[in-house]
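Supplementary Note 3. Input sequence used for the single-chain structure prediction.
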Amino acid sequence: MPKQLERAVLYVSAEFETAAHLCACGCGAKVRTPLGPTEWAIRETEAGPTVRPSIGNWQQECRSHYLITRGSVKWAGRWSEEKVLAGRTAEQNRREVYFEENYPEPSISGRFWNWLKSLF
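The predicted structure, written as discrete structure tokens, is reproduced below.
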């Protein structure tokens, strides 16, 4: 990823399974989205990239929420703090189900991850 990101450009690193762009609201915040089966996915189309799920900048002052669809930003509704917390819980539940179904016998790193989760 370049240190300086350009406005309206989605940078994708297949090697590091991540994407980055500047927040669509114009605030200048760098937005990084990990890519993978439990994170975001990017689909290339002739009109431009589509990113799913939506991008919610809950930790930024702007709290922007949008989708990138066929190279265009589609604004989504603002979320309350309760909805953000519910969304984060749902994401974590989806991750846990995915890994339980696909990696039933925890590896050393899986056991370490489970141990870390137990601390919080």
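Residues 27 and 62 are 7 Å apart (CA to CA). The chain has a mean pLDDT of 92.
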